[in-house]
Amino acid sequence: MNYLNKKTVEDIDVKGKKVLVRCDFNVPFDAEGNISDPKRINEALKTIKYLVDHQAKVILCSHLGRPKGEFNMKYSLAPVAEYLSKALGQEVKMAKDVIGESAKSIAASLKDGEVELIENVRFHKEEEKNDPAFAKELASLAEIYVNDAFGTAHRAHCSNVGVTQYVDTAVVGYLMQKEIDFLGNAVNNPARPFVAILGGSKVSSKISVIDNLIDKVDVLIIGGGMAYTFAKAAGGTVGDSLLEMDYLDYANKMKEKAAAKGVKLLLPVDNVVADAFSNDANTQVVPAGQIPDGWEGLDIGPETAKLFADAVKTAKTVVWNGPMGCFEMPNFAHGTEAVAKALAETDATTIIGGGDSAAAVNILGYGDKMTHISTGGGASLEFLEGKELPGVAAANDKD
Ligand code: AMP
User: Sign (positive/negative) of CA torsion 379, 380, 382, 387?
Assistant: First the structure.
């Protein structure tokens, strides 16, 4: 599938048309019920403003949390409508339902350039089942469909896949286009050297990414909890560190594969180990594969941080997915921070997969130094695995 060949909002005439836009308004709330981080809403503004400026009748939809297929005010999108009204400088009309009387009558009465937000699509259990009848009802609200929700692109639900069966035109919005452009170009057409940095907890959850990237990268860096399985496979001792015994063979084969393909595989040479899984634990730095009993590796060590940072300096493209250690605990965030800093300082194109790596980069204050931080954790991981994303595949190709 050619990801870069999808029709966008700019390829169609939207004036006077009813346009259903799938956004990702799945934002976090604080204890008082206020939106605590509106980043996802802000990311959707470019597409919404374009449609408003081009006199479309805009009908927005999204999921929020996990209401389990039932109406639940706790998961209402009403606070999002309020936020959007301020951000757009015009009223966003909040419907009381998803495909009911309220959603339909507001949609029917929209004037050109006006905006409606229908309720949480997950108030209907049919949404996540990609139920055709529900998809048809959603589609009946509009003439054109725009998907701008990269965060759910790896799922085939009604509001991002099923709905496209019942509209004549299905295109992608600016955010979706940006995600597939950056991730697609980085993975399939990278400026070289291309360095991929993989971390996180388990080898098992990153196997497909490793398998896909090993054919594309010049340098593959493996850190985080998954590196201990590689250390053990090489005959080392890893104490109480994260270890997947079932993947020792895989780790050895992967090393051979990298060597056969001429890919430089970089693994930790030292680790910060702790005598408990706690920020206040006693720590020491030991060579990789020499972790004493009673100690567990919770971060890469300073030599490794330097080794990885030096590799980043040689790169023209860097893709990063997964932290180098337990970055949630400040004493074990140094390795992740060193990698984030190296990415921040390079002129290379730097792409951060969503989820934990995106959170780490933002928490550590390097967010604005990256070329692109993906808004989709699961979606960016599946993209890096080389899988087709149903939410993207469902959009029309350019003529
Ligand atoms: P993942 O979801 O697989 O990308 O893993 C992210 C999680 O891996 C984060 O919550 C990290 O705290 C955790 N992690 C990274 N390195 C280690 C480690 N050495 N030991 C235990 N957990 C780790």
Answer: positive
**Ligand 1 atom, smallest distance to 206 CA:** 3
Residue 202: active-site member: yes
Q: Identify the residue whose C-alpha is closest to ligand 1 atom 16.
A: 325
Report residue 389's pLDDT band, with 50, 70 and 90 as the boundaries.
very high
Ligand 1 pocket, CB under 6 A: 200-202, 205, 224-225, 242, 297-298, 322-323, 325-326, 328, 356
In this predicted structure, what is the pLDDT of residue 399? 85
DSSP 22: E
Max CA pair span of the chain: 70
360/319 Cα distance (integer angstroms): 14
What global pTM score does this model have? 0.91
The C-alpha atoms of residue 59 and residue 55 are separated, in whole angstroms, by 12
CA gap 117, 102 in Å, rounded: 11
- Are 21 and 152 spatial neighbours (Cβ–Cβ below 8 Å)? no
- Kindly report, residue by residue over 59-69, the tens digit of the pLDDT: 999 999 999 99
Å from CA of 243 to ligand 1 middle = 12
Distances (CA, A) of 153 to 236, 244, 362, 375: 40, 30, 23, 11
How far, in Å, CA of 53 to CA of 38, rounded?
22
